[in-house]
Amino acid sequence: MADSGNWCLIESDPGVFTGLIKGIGVSGVQVEEIYSIDKETLEDLKPVHGLIFLFKWQGRDPASATNQAPIEHENPDVFFAQQVITNACATQAILSILLNSRSIELGEELSNFKSFVSDFPAELKGHAISNSDTIRAVHNSFARSDPFINEMNDPTSKEKEDLFHFIAYTPINGCLYELDGLQEGPRNHGPAEGDAWLEKVGPIIQERMARYEGGEIRFNLMAVVDDRIKVYQEKVAAYEAQLKELQDKEGPDAGGWLKGEIENLRGDIVKEEAKREKQARENKLRRHNFIPMIYEILKGLAQEDGRLEGLIEEGRTRAKAEAENAKQRKAAAAAAGGGAEADEDAEMYE
Question: What is the pTM of this model?
Answer without folding.
Answer: 0.76
